[in-house]
Design the sequence.
């Protein structure tokens, strides 16, 4: 896979001085990791989200989404609005099985 990526991006990835800056505090993702994801072929906000888990922490992207978009847009040389917003999902929490059993009527097996 990396070999195919290198064909698509013949120039080497160049690190920057501020690449160690934390952008997504919930998942501890740095600016450099986001830049590297774009270099590796991620082209949308959702692709970077799935690749790195940015925006999947406690805040669900409320804190970092615009920052992530800005970094991706800067790397791709496009406007942030062209990238689309992160597709949100409801937070998932474990549910005890007895919660479901309260809603089920007794069924007798034959």
Sequence:
């Amino acid at each position: 896979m990396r070999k195919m990526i290198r064909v698509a991006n013949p120039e080497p990835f160049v690190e920057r001085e501020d690449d160690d800056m934390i952008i997504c505090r919930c998942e501890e993702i740095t600016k450099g990791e986001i830049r590297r994801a774009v270099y590796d072929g991620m082209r949308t906000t959702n692709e970077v989200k799935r690749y790195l888990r940015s925006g999947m922490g406690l805040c669900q992207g409320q804190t970092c989404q615009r920052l992530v978009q800005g970094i991706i847009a800067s790397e791709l040389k496009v406007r942030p609005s062209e990238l689309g917003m992160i597709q949100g999902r409801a937070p998932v929490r474990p549910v005890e099985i007895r919660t479901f059993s309260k809603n089920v009527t007794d069924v007798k097996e034959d």
Summary: The chain has a mean pLDDT of 82. Residues 2-101 form a domain with the Arc Repressor Mutant, subunit A fold (CATH 1.10.10.1100). Residues 65-76 form the longest helix (12 residues). The chain has one domain: 2-101.
